[in-house]
């Protein structure tokens, strides 16, 4: 992206302001990029921990494998409250509550393993939802980190050098123009002086 500009003092002032804005924003963007990177690492670690818990629960589920076929449909998910939380200036989803509903059934006719199965199933669902939300959070923050990295690179490697170079070219042009003007004035003055003599 080559800058287009006029060779005048107004353009120099405009470019100096734009350059100052970018130079002030650059350290902030670098800090944001670092913070986002650390947050993504933290969430990835959390996600791995949740996946380990899920694998441990899968082993427990194996004990109930024979019973799942006769497991009654008494556990229902009533609602999931998800809200937006701001992390490093980025909105990410967060689970507030998960509400389960247990159908009205006669517990006297239920096998003894059903309450344990319900508790296990609740935990499986809770971990699955938590893992999904963590994955979404990681994806959103990683995308924000990539965009911030792109902006840092744009400022650092493209725009700041272009503005500095444009300011320098305009200043040189204006100095040359002024020097030529002064030289022309001297020549005119010398001619007048030589004619007067």
TrEMBL record:
Name the family: Belongs to the V-ATPase D subunit family.
Gene3D superfamilies reported for this sequence: 1.10.287.3240
Q: What keyword terms does UniProt attach to this protein?
A: Coiled coil, Ion transport, Transport
Q: What is this protein called?
A: V-type ATP synthase subunit D
Q: Could you state a single Gene Ontology molecular function term?
A: proton-transporting ATPase activity, rotational mechanism
A Pfam family = ATP-synt_D
Point out the coiled-coil segments of this chain. 33-60
